[in-house]
Design goal:
- Its EC number is 2.6.1.16.
- Keywords: Aminotransferase, Glutamine amidotransferase, Repeat, Transferase.
- It catalyses: D-fructose 6-phosphate + L-glutamine = D-glucosamine 6-phosphate + L-glutamate.
- This is Glutamine--fructose-6-phosphate aminotransferase [isomerizing].
- The chain is of the alpha/beta class.
- Helix content is 44%, strand content 16%.
- Helix 4 (60-76) packs parallel to helix 8 and helix 4 (60-76) runs antiparallel to helix 11.
- The chain is globular, with a radius of gyration of 20 Å.
- The chain starts with 6 loop residues before the first helix and ends in an 18-residue tail after the last helix.
- The structure holds 6-O-phosphono-beta-D-glucopyranose.
- Residues 58-61, 105-107, 110, 113, 156-158, 357-358, 360-361 line the site of 6-O-phosphono-beta-D-glucopyranose (BG6).
């Protein structure tokens, strides 16, 4: 085994392409450029009546919920946001009848998410679940849902479940969009991109060996930043979460746009930054921020797309294949899993069972 590869997290990362195929199987409609999600239990009339989407989850499920909110806003043009279920359930939330609540959970047993679902339902709201474990508490409690078919996930750090959550959000956003104003040609564009994703996932996983050396350098830092903006910000949050939970290094996610309003004061040769710089409407601004970091001696690792011109900024660069821009976040996330994995393995840590953490928190 090279580079200490093995264990649950490793195998679950390697299963992501197959898991992506499983969550999409039988759910894409090429002819009408839409998705079929029978388990949602919502007809077209009910779907059209949705005015807002509120996504609830904890940890990685919350961060992928932020990615899902962007997908829903972009494809369905419905205002959407994600909130940590652990906060939502304690703040006496206003439950609106024309809001669709979406609970996201690998285990389907996370107590904060389950109690958030119960709070919504007690007040008459409609909740659908994005859940992996069939027949779990959340799966039984919701009005309808999408099973993730990720297969068993054992490592505490979520990898393949998160990838299937992202794809389930893509299907949901596509279906919501197509009963509203998303055109058939845009629908077909997304369907084709989704069909291509499993192979692209495999392609990104093949970067693994090339990330080992950089991961080892990052492991030597006590503190690091993960930055991105708009679609890239939840990617940075998820990347920082993975890194901190399995390497025990302080990893903080920040919006690239906010660096100059505070964290730039901390940048130095001892504080590396991992930057998400997709080819999109903000590429030039992101590259500008890289220069600001480099000017202060901050080491840079950039996850980007082929052809993006980073100028003369000193950095280690990793290119992931492009998808359609709405779907880019998932491919940008995968190298961050690999970085965390290789850094933690290098440090000799128990990657699958990090200290102080449980796979699912089922009691208060
Ligand atoms: C945390 C786990 O306790 O629960 C995270 O450490 C996970 O990895 C989170 O993302 C949510 O779990 P679930 O099962 O609700 O998706």
């Amino acid at each position: 085994v090279e580079h200490g590869e093995g264990g649950h997290m490793w195998r679950e990362m390697q299963d992501q392409s197959a898991a992506a195929e499983r969550v999409l199987r039988g759910r894409l409609d090429e002819r009408f450029g839409t998705a079929h999600l029978g388990g949602l239990n919502m007809d077209a009339r009910e779907t059209r009546a949705i005015r807002r989407v509120k996504i609830l989850g904890c940890g990685s499920a919350y961060y992928v919920g932020q990615m899902g909110a962007s997908l829903i806003e972009e494809l369905a043009r419905i205002p959407a946001d994600a909130e940590a279920a652990s906060e939502f359930r304690y703040r006496d939330p206003v439950i609106e009848p024309d809001t669709l609540y979406v609970a996201v959970s690998q285990s389907g047993e996370t107590i904060d998410t389950l109690l958030a679902v119960q709070e919504v339902r007690r007040k008459g709201g409609r909740v659908v679940g994005l859940v992996n474990v069939v027949g779990s508490a959340i799966a039984r409690e919701v009005d309808g849902g999408i099973y993730l078919h990720a297969g068993p996930e054992v490592a505490v750090a979520s990898t393949k479940a998160l990838t299937t959550m992202f794809l389930a959000f893509s299907l949901l956003a596509l279906q919501l969009g197509r009963v509203r104003d998303l055109s058939i040609s845009d629908g077909k564009r997304i369907v084709a991109a989704l069909q291509a994703l499993p192979d692209q996932v495999e392609e990104v996983m093949s970067l693994s060996d090339s990330l080992v050396e950089v991961a080892e350098q990052l492991a030597a830092a006590d503190s690091l930043f993960f930055v991105g903006r708009v679609r890239g910000f939840p990617v940075a949050r998820e990347g920082a979460q993975k890194f901190k939970e399995i390497t025990y290094r302080h990893a903080e996610a920040y919006q690239t746009s906010e660096l100059k309003h505070g964290p730039l004061a901390l940048i130095s040769a001892a504080v590396p930054t991992v930057a998400i710089v997709p080819q999109d409407e903000l590429t030039d601004r992101n590259v500008g921020a890289l220069h600001e970091i480099a000017a202060r001696g901050g080491p840079l690792v950039v996850v980007t797309h082929p052809g993006v011109d980073l100028g003369d900024v000193p950095c280690r660069r990793f290119d992931v294949p492009r998808s359609e821009r709405e779907l880019d976040p998932i491919l940008l996330t995968l190298p961050l899993q690999l970085l965390a994995y290789h850094a933690a393995s290098h440090l000799g840590l128990d990657v699958d069972k990090p200290r102080n953490l449980a796979k699912s928190v089922t009691v208060e």
